[in-house]
Amino acid sequence: TTTPQVPAQEIEALAAIEALLQLPLDAPEAQTASLPKDAYRFLARVLAQWPLPSWGPALDLMRLMLLYPAVARHYAGTKSSHCNIVVKRCLCKAAGSADVPKGVRLRALFMIINVFAHACGVHKMMRPGGTADLIDACLDMLSVADATIRMSAAAVLFNISLYLPKVACLGTRHSAPAQALLLMARGPAVCM
Description:
There is one protein chain. By secondary structure, the protein is mainly α. Helix content is 58%, strand content 0%. It contains 10 helices and no strands. 31% of the residues are buried.
């Protein structure tokens, strides 16, 4: 059998992502470092074409990339949200999240947690109507047997709760106990 050729464009996209991730987050150049559009297109293709159980590495890359301000600004400025795709495919019960491998679900939660690392990500995530599915999914995960899933879902809810007083996105969809849970926390956002 022959090994399929990896397109040069994908190799270049991965090299650009690797170069970005080698920059220490506290380095001045990390504040302005950006990626070529092909790097973002590559990750979008992965989410569109790869089977869901294989998403783990791409979600890990996105989780780390979201800690860089330019990447967070890029994703915050896009019309369609990669976060919504990940939430719907990996976390929501309606999409069959029970069949999502634990590693992929955890990486999805870690990625969502890191969206809150920068104000632009918070703004994108907390737009009106943008958090209802995520809140429901995370509240459901608080009752699963796996402690790592529960703690990660709680971290997402904690990050959301930090911004709820500033954003009216809950409406009446959630029960009073759920709203109270989400409003309890105060402090810096959690990152993974």
